[in-house]
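REVIEWER CHECKLIST
Item 1: Sequence provided? yes
Item 2: Single chain? yes
Item 3: Sequence as submitted:
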Amino acid sequence: MDTKSWLRCYRCWSTDLEVQVHYEGIHRIDPQTGERAEVVDEVQEAVVQCLDCLHDQPHLGFFDGRVEPLEDRWERMITGTPWVASCTVTVHADEIETCSGPEAGDALSYAAFGDHGTREFFTHVRFHKHEDDRVVVHLIVELYARSSEEATEVLETSARGPIAITSLAEESRPPAATADGPAH
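Item 4: Structure as written out by the authors:
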């Protein structure tokens, strides 16, 4: 596999990336040496970010000290184009952490699409309405796909409840970055 085909920002094509690694661990200590003796529990989370446009790169992961493409999405995001959808997703009210205040947009996006709604898609919650124990979330979503069929499939697969897509339109991809930085 050609490294240059996936080791770039999917939005501005820059290759100026960094990985931010967050590590939490619980370790037993050897009482004789004071050194770490046994790993009880550890969690590592990493986010690859473009230093030029500051967007996270959800098509890349960090495994065993190396940035690698995520097979289920890198090709779609690198070779695809942006698609904008207007849609509604109906979720159970218990799935929403909050629907007011500064965190409401992320909470509603997460309720509608899970991690895709907060990490891969660009979402804008237009409004939401409560219907008994359900909440209908109205969103504008930008995602990357190679066709309208693929965009529809990604939205339907990611939705955490019944989805209605009222419009779907292809946008033009932002211009590629040059060696001197992203194009403007």
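Item 5: Key structural point noted by reviewer: The first helix runs from residue 74 to 79.
Item 6: Recommendation: ____
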